[in-house]
Amino acid sequence: MRISFIYKNAEWLGVEYLVAILKEAGHEVELLFDSGVGDMEFKLNFLKKFMKPEDVMLEKARKFKPQLIAVSCLNNMTTWAKQMCTLFKKEFNVPVLIGGLQPTMVPEMFMRNDWDVDIICRGEGEDAILELCNSIDKGQIDYSIQNLWFKKPNGEIVKNEIRSLERDIDTLPFPDKSIFFEYGAFSTRLYIMASRGCPYKCTYCFNHNYQRLYKDKGNYVRFRKPEKVIDEVVHFKEKYPGIKEVFFYDDNFTLKKIWTLELCRQYKERVYNIYKMPFKCLVRADQIDIDVARALKESGCIYVDMGLESGDDYIRNEILKRNMSDEEIINAANCFHEVGLEFTTLNMVGFPGETPEQMLKTIAINQKIKPAAALMTTFFPFPKTDLAERSVREGYINEKNYLQMLEGHVSYKEETILDHPYKKEIMWVWAFFPIAVRYPKLMPLLSRLPPHKSFRFISTFFSTPMRNYIIRFKEMTSMISNNIKRTYALPSNRNIVKVPSES
């Protein structure tokens, strides 16, 4: 059968895995992609007049004639996803499936009558969507498929259980990157996952909800064999020679020391020594010692992202449940400095109950450990997480804001959604944090400046290593250019859409 996936903004591994498993089973699959206008960073709304992504997507879908529409939805895509479901349901009148983090967390919202959705996929979707497509291909939808909720034509709602995590993730086909390559969303950086799941219960993160969802359903945290991971890296490097580096997208690349050391050894032997292709990864400070730091450096790791979130011990461990001491953070930083491996810290501000003094501690510990860059975001209460529920109970989120949050009208890229008594201080830290970390001596000057958006823009250049900024800028430029060209190629828009010059 024919399945059209719909996605926006960037390459997404989840969609790539679903496409790969469907193609392996003989189904026809295409991607309908909206590049956005810099929605992941700073919105470039002036470009919208040159782009008609919905028209481009519809034109492509009409030629393909899909039998199933599949929309992937993160929190900040909810409003857009709703528009896509309505648009494509009206145009093709075929089943519409929606999956991803937001439908998994709040499935009831997507079953409402104001959503043109027939099926919800909760949790991991590879086996569920394969069974669904096989059943549709045979002429009859199987309403008993685990992980799926159904809205039958007669209005009846079917809520199936979550399936056990029985599949060995090494048996999954490699993700299909050709679908995003076509749109310029994948080019020089290879995104890859060597494991799935996270054992920690940080209150702001979705993982503790997924752990509850999959309780008694098998091992939530699973690792691929190192040789299989390296096989995938080599496969894509040979298929796409333009790849320059690898980004291991795992929640905790250093969770199992023996596994990490072996993966680093094989990466050095089979990838770095041959292709000179570096990588980056995400780490936790309490998993880092000198052996791990040295193995990362020697195998070609160019830098790591390390989550601190807060420099205040009470906020970090009692509110966020990070279970990580100042000493462990400082030790990890010392290990990285000793072996010469750059690291970026990930931080947040604006937690329930957080005071200005506690916010300043996050600046102070970063100044002490001297990262190459320091990223700061405002705390965003993702639906159904423990800290979101606490924010509601304690009055930091009112009914209006909670509804806006659920429907994706606000994001962590914008100002805090919380009704916080120290909102001014939150916005100041958000604007100046990366600069204050890089240049501590500027603190007296910075403290007298207002948190204007222009300063936030300047701070962006100190939030991540420049190579990361350049790669993302190239991806965004390539996607937008691709979208403009596709718009111009539409029969109804020829000689009408004027592409801006490159001056």
Name a few traits of the molecule.
503 residues, Rossmann fold, TIM Barrel, 2 domains, six-stranded parallel β-sheet, 20 helices, 15 strands, disordered C terminus
The gist of it:
The protein is an alpha/beta fold and 503 residues long. The chain is 43% helix and 15% strand.
Report on the structure:
43% of the residues lie in helices and 15% in strands. Helix 1 crosses helix 6 and helix 11 packs parallel to helix 13 (326-339). Helix 11 links the parallel strand 12 (279-283) and strand 13. It contains 20 helices and 15 strands. The protein has 503 residues and is an alpha/beta fold. Residues 494-503 have low confidence and may be disordered. The longest helix is centred in the C-terminal third of the chain and has 24 residues, at 466-489. The two termini are 46 Å apart. It has 2 domains: 2-164, Cobalamin-binding domain (Rossmann fold); 187-451, TIM Barrel, CATH 3.20.20.
Describe how the helices and strands are arranged:
Elements: E1 2-8, H1 13-24, E2 28-34, H2 53-64, E3 68-72, H3 78-92, E4 96-99, H4 101-105, H5 107-110, E5 119-121, H6 126-137, E6 148-151, E7 157-159, H7 178-181, E8 189-192, E9 195-196, H8 207-213, E10 222-223, H9 226-239, E11 245-248, H10 257-275, E12 279-283, H11 290-298, E13 301-309, H12 313-319, H13 326-339, E14 342-349, H14 356-369, E15 373-378, H15 386-393, H16 399-406, H17 423-438, H18 443-446, H19 453-460, H20 466-489
Parallel strand pairs: 1-2, 1-3, 3-4, 4-5, 8-11, 11-12, 12-13, 13-14, 14-15
Antiparallel strand pairs: 5-6, 6-7, 9-10
